[in-house]
Q: What sequence folds into this?
């Protein structure tokens, strides 16, 4: 298994792969790998000759009071989890190399970056898009894989790819969940026992909303209220937002018709969790 840290070495590796006429799939991650990440890697292995998994805790996407310092970093563990996928290439750029303090250029995907997570995390998606663009430029992938768990993120990456004419096919894959519905996340390890047992309420609330919509409820405001009430029953949950929005534009919906996205962000204790569900209304 190959682990590359140098940008130059990564450039050269990708160029050689391309020169040989082989295809590359990129799976960008922040490490602390779990089954959600591994599902993306499994799909990437099926699609391309060479798979590159980047592991980089991206400082640009963390706000000032967020968990950058304590975010789990476990490269050895991650390498072990990736062994069954060998041959596979791990790209672990160094922070100073990859995000120098003087970094002035950045990618802004306007409009899509403003609602939902963008409200409480200004600059977050600029940080994500900028790093993904750098990863695209360095690894030169034919394909890139993202999770629907971070729905807004994959939408922004698809828009960036299209608007900036990257010749890359971007795939988004379904959320992998724990036995009780909790969306897998590297942040779940922060949860204490009490918080962990409260956390599946996010997915329960999403499913409850889905049931109601499928029974004919059309009023997005009512759905929003019902979710907020349900989450409000769990004292450990502090809602950041509940969104009932158009899945393409992320604009708030008033009357539910066709496909809609229901998205939640909430703090459980000190841990910020997000989850979402696409619902097909009649
Ligand atoms: P992260 O390491 O959290 O930045 O995630 C790296 C990639 O894995 C992103 O594209 C995420 O959307 C995706 N991902 C994270 N959690 C899951 C999950 N539970 N199921 C599927 N994909 C996921």
A:
């Amino acid at each position: 298994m190959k682990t590359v840290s140098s940008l130059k070495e990564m450039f050269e590796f990708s160029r050689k792969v391309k020169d040989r006429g082989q295809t590359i799939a990129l799976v960008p991650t922040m490490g602390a790998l779990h089954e959600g990440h591994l599902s993306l890697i499994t799909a990437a292995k099926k699609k391309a000759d060479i798979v590159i998994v980047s592991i980089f805790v991206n400082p640009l996407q963390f706000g000032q009071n967020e968990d950058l310092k304590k975010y789990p970093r476990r490269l050895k563990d991650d390498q072990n989890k990736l062994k069954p996928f060998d041959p596979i290439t791990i790209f672990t750029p160094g922070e100073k190399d990859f995000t120098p303090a003087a970094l002035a250029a950045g990618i802004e995907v306007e409009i899509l970056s403003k609602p939902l997570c963008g409200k409480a995390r200004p600059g977050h998606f600029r940080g994500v898009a900028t790093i993904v663009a750098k990863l695209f430029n360095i690894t030169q992938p034919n394909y890139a894989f993202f999770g629907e768990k971070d729905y807004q993120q994959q939408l922004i990456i698809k828009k960036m790819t299209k608007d900036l004419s990257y010749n890359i096919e971007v795939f988004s894959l379904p959320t992998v969940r724990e036995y009780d519905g909790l969306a897998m996340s590297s942040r779940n390890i922060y949860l204490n026992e009490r918080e962990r047992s409260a956390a599946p309420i996010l997915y329960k609330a999403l499913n409850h909303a889905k049931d109601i919509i499928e029974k004919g409820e059309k009023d997005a405001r009512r759905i929003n209220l019902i979710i907020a009430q349900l989450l409000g029953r769990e004292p450990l949950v502090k809602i950041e937002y509940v969104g009932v929005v158009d899945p393409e534009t992320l604009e708030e919906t008033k009357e539910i018709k066709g496909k809609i996205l229901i998205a939640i962000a909430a703090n459980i204790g000190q841990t910020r969790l997000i989850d979402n569900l696409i619902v097909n209304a009649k």
